[in-house]
Amino acid sequence: MRGMSRRTLELIAFARKLLKANHPMTLRQLHYAIFSAAEIDYKNNKADYQRLSRATSESRRLYRFAQLKLRTNVVDAIPGNWIVDQTREAETVSMWDDAAEYLETIKRSYRRDYWQIQPRYCEVWSEKGTVLASIRPIVRKLGVTVRVCHGFGSTGMESQIGDLFEGIAKPITVFYLGDHDPSGHEIERDIYQRAECASGRKFSLVRLAIHAEDIRRFKLPPQVIKSSDSRAKGFERRFGKKAATVELDALPVEELRRRVGDAIERLIDRDLWDRQVAVEKVELASIADFANTVKNLPQLMR
Predict the structure, then answer these.
(1) Which residues in the chain show pLDDT less than 70?
(2) Burial 99-128 (b: 16+ CB within 10 A, else e)
(3) pLDDT in tens, 71-120
(4) Degrees to nearest 5, angle at CA 124 with 121 and 126
(5) Pairwise CA distance, residues 128 & 153, whole Å
(6) Torsion angle, CA of 204/137/82/39, rounded to 10 degrees?
(7) Among 83, 130, 251, 267, fewest CB within 10 Å belongs to which?
(8) Per-residue pLDDT tens for 130-168?
(9) At 21, is the secondary structure helix, strand, or coil?
(10) 3-state SS, residue 219
(11) How many degrees, rounded to 5, is the angle at CA 104 between CA 98 and CA 105?
């Protein structure tokens, strides 16, 4: 990666090291991870965030150029899919070449709802969408719904939750992810109360991140309470006059994944779960047999 300064190369190398262990991450998560590691000259400010953005963008372009065989000797560049942008994902329409290809898709994608005979129901709610890519492998593996509030949850979100929870005849647990600041805690309280009213159901809401003690434990970049925040007084009464605040994105990705995975796993009855897995195997075998039959029909073979 010729033409880059020594400082930029150092930043790219360290970013690649962190991403290799924890991808995918958002740029903001990477920013906090580099700062918290305190291994290179990097500050929690706008200038270094922008420097990181420029450096990773150039590195990802170089990686793509190498894939296209337009450039060589960029083995230390950053693969494009190691950094994600949840706000700019493309929306596509599902289409297939023919019915045989569609059946192959069904064969690969069918998944039984393992939670239907579990004694409890759970979801994960997040204040912001920037951590979705980080927890997606865990929640998809365990078949759990994730909802993003994008700040204070909308009336539409409240209504969807109400309609669903009203019909669930088992204990419900929601695991919550949010900023540790006045607004973050108020958003949590607000959507919890509104969802209970909309559903007519009592349910448990458990905050998994961020907690006040995480700042010290993980050496997260603390910020001061904004005096202009109308919710600051309540936060100060709860956590102290000089309490620090921190964003959800600052929590190390591996820790966030561990918390979400462990919390969900503790609710699962493994015997009932394994029974559903066994039923799914039989169903998948039937789907595969049907797909093979259709694929071999004379009109499709032509």
Answers:
(1) 1-3, 70-75, 86-90, 294-295, 297-302
(2) ebeebbeebeeeebebbeebeebbbbbbbb
(3) 666 667 888 888 887 666 667 788 878 777 777 777 777 889 999 999 99
(4) 155
(5) 10
(6) 60
(7) 267
(8) 899 899 999 999 999 999 988 888 888 888 999 999 999
(9) helix
(10) coil
(11) 90
pTM for the whole structure: 0.78
Residue ranges of domains in the chain: 6-84, 119-265
3-state helix, strand, coil in the chain (%, to 5): 60, 10, 30
| Strands annotated E in 163-277 | 172-177, 204-209
Q: Which CATH number fits domain 119-265: 3.10.129.10, 1.10.287.110, 3.40.190.10, 3.40.1360.10?
A: 3.40.1360.10
d(CA 217, CA 116): 38
Per the structure block, which two tokens stand in for 251? 């929590």
